[in-house]
Amino acid sequence: MHRTSLLALLLCAGPALSLASDRAAPEWELSLAAGHGVLENPLAGRADGETNFLPSFSYYGDRFFISNLAVGYSLLEERNFYVDLVARPNEDGLYYHLDDSEMTMGSLSFALGSAGGFGPQLEPIERDISLMAGPSVTLVGKYADLSLASFHDVTAVHYGSETHLSLDKVYPLFGGKLGLSLGAIKKDADLIGYYYHVTEAEGGMMARSFARQSPPEDVVDTYGRLHFSYPLTRNVEFRLGARYQLFDEEGRNPMVLGKSETMSWFAGFQYRFGSDR
């Protein structure tokens, strides 16, 4: 469940904020894609997520809208400018739940530079998923849409915040549609400390020593996303989505962040139905 949720969050669409103003979209649409997808997990000791199915759901009312895991309310809509309030899960927390079975980070050594031996044994590390909410502003352009959003933890999980800046656009290509996105996400030290550091109870005295030397800091992660769909019939289309993400290593515990670069993708055939079909 969590792996398909995160794949939907990362691959299925551009910013949920920009979709609310698309009056060409149906009032509601439900789809299920069958194929194969891999979500590369950046956390050390955690397995990548894989799935053969990718569900998607969207609903657009007069003001209220849902796009997969994002829920929003439109405050202002103009031809080339709009403002939304949006709530969505934090993706860093979802990385801890790609597998419903009991998973741990394993044994982490905080003696950086050690060439061998055994580090302190950690208790299983688990993190909760936080709900992030806040305003989003989008400027619609001829060649790209510029979006800026500020999200804050409204579930008292870590009390952190993140700021999203992105360029997005969908273009016609070979009878289908090609969506491209480039973005950056600034995450504050509270969020990073919760998801990418360990407590003294989890890591012992070495965790305290590491926190003194390398405390959590604000980071800026960047990504590029591609989505292509080609209609085969009225309700069936071929679908391909991929996202490359570069994680800022500064401020993160390198024993928790196992990979600074990840590639996630899904390819398959999708069946769609909705109020316009």
Map the helices and strands.
Layout: H1 2-11, H2 16-19, E1 28-39, E2 49-60, E3 64-67, E4 70-77, E5 81-89, H3 91-94, E6 131-139, E7 145-153, E8 161-173, E9 176-187, H4 189-196, H5 200-203, H6 205-213, E10 219-231, E11 236-246, E12 261-274
Antiparallel strand pairs: 1-2, 1-12, 2-3, 3-4, 4-5, 5-6, 6-7, 7-8, 8-9, 9-10, 10-11, 11-12
Describe this structure in words.
InterPro entries: MipA. Belongs to the MipA/OmpV family. It is found in: Cell outer membrane. Strands 1-2-3-4-5-6-7-8-9-10-11-12 form a twelve-stranded antiparallel beta barrel. It has 277 residues and is mainly beta. It is 14% helix and 45% strand. The model is unreliable at 13-23 and 100-122 (pLDDT under 50). It is globular, with a radius of gyration of 20 Å. A hairpin with a 5-residue loop joins strand 6 (131-139) and strand 7. It has a single domain (2-104, 122-274), classed as Porin (Beta Barrel), CATH 2.40.160. The longest helix is centred in the N-terminal third of the chain and has 10 residues, at 2-11.
- Count of individual helical segments: 6
Shape: globular
Care to count the β-strands? Answer: 12
Give the mean pLDDT.
82
